[in-house]
TrEMBL record:
<dbReference type="InterPro" id="IPR051799">
    <property type="entry name" value="NADH_flavin_oxidoreductase"/>
</dbReference>
<feature type="domain" description="NADH:flavin oxidoreductase/NADH oxidase N-terminal">
    <location>
        <begin position="10"/>
        <end position="337"/>
    </location>
</feature>
<dbReference type="GO" id="GO:0016491">
    <property type="term" value="F:oxidoreductase activity"/>
</dbReference>
<dbReference type="InterPro" id="IPR013785">
    <property type="entry name" value="Aldolase_TIM"/>
</dbReference>
<protein>
    <submittedName>
        <fullName>NADH:flavin oxidoreductase/NADH oxidase family protein</fullName>
    </submittedName>
</protein>
<dbReference type="InterPro" id="IPR001155">
    <property type="entry name" value="OxRdtase_FMN_N"/>
</dbReference>
<dbReference type="GO" id="GO:0010181">
    <property type="term" value="F:FMN binding"/>
</dbReference>
<keyword id="KW-0285">Flavoprotein</keyword>
<keyword id="KW-0560">Oxidoreductase</keyword>
<dbReference type="Pfam" id="PF00724">
    <property type="entry name" value="Oxidored_FMN"/>
</dbReference>
Amino acid sequence: MTAARELLAEPLKLRCGAVLPHRLAKSALSEQLGDRRNAPTRELADLYRTWAHGGAGLLVTGNVMVDPTALGEPRNVALPVGPDPAAYEPWARSVAGTDAQLWVQLNHPGRQSPRFLSRQPAAPSAVPFGSRGVRTAFAAPRALTGDEIETIVDRFALAARTFVDAGFTGVQLHGAHGYLISQFLSPLTNLRDDEWGRDRSRFLLELVRRVRAAVGDAVPVSVKLNSADFQRGGFGEDESLRVVRALSDAGIDLLEISGGTYEKAVMMGSGRESTARREAYFLDYAAKARQVSDVALMVTGGFTTAAGMADALRSGALDMIGLGRPLTVDPELPGRLLAGEDVRAERLCPHTGIRLADSLLEVQWHTQQLHRLAAGKPADRSRGAWRALVRTGINDPLNAFRRVRA
Ligand SMILES: Cc1cc2nc3c(=O)[nH]c(=O)nc-3n(C[C@H](O)[C@H](O)[C@H](O)COP(=O)(O)O)c2cc1C
């Protein structure tokens, strides 16, 4: 049997001809390290230098918003009206001297934009976000017009071209976790009776077509897609597999598999026993996706050990291992795994036992850790739940206050 280390170290050639140096990727983690104008800060480039030297072979950035008036979080990096690639060059250069690929993840929040950032977000249809409790934080959206949808497609293509001109080596579209692309895919949030609603995958496929045309055939184009939204009547597995086939036919280079939305955050763990036994969250789905397409597959969510990662690769269901939260406390984990060290990704985020607080904490605790890395500090592994929540309560309103509202 091939040793775990050798399996992880194998290069992967993508359809476009680009080669990923090995099988360990850093998945997108929203950094919230943009400045007042939502341009990247020096800390952001410093953070990616740390991650690139930590050994990940593919770094997918945290979500970059294509519309500066539609943010998912305060301090997102967002493409301005007239973008200049030079603004992104220092970030692109952060991986210099390593063999890491750096791909920009492009996103639009749609209705998933908190009230303090968007007084009235726009979405495929006017369906409010979340349960009644959560709705105090998220304003009800209005439905996008056909012209506005075309403009958003243009913005994705412009963003892709701008980042590639700046030196980024690939592009990923964020089609998971309940943001705009997910909203178009889901029958619960896309009630349109025009061409964008009759075929709910049209928006995503049009984005792929336009982004490919903007960056050319040699640049990797990837999509992060939900295996399912895990909501009754929502985007389910059968439909997701149909979208995988269509994406593969449309010529994407890598499909990253995740699942859930911020209403049902299974991407951070479902607690199911079968999942706990097999470490990663979406392996069964990956095996099915493998049956319907030959596109390279990456699974993100739950990986902790070299043995678990190697077993997943050995199963033949996937080609790349995506790591998110573990790299906020140990940026050198990929290098250590590749060196054959006996390490495991630690899951250190504390919990309060209060469901809403804990799902906020899962994001905020890790964001605070990556802010420490960006500032050149070591992770604060023992940071407690209440300390992290209080800090969020202070930082977010302050940052939001600085934003121009949509
Ligand atoms: C702080 C934080 C920020 C995240 N931001 C993004 C993001 O911008 N885009 C995205 O696709 N996923 C994002 N995710 C989800 C991760 O990419 C990943 O799917 C999830 O953490 C599960 O992987 P893990 O178990 O290795 O952490 C984020 C997760 C966390 C904890």
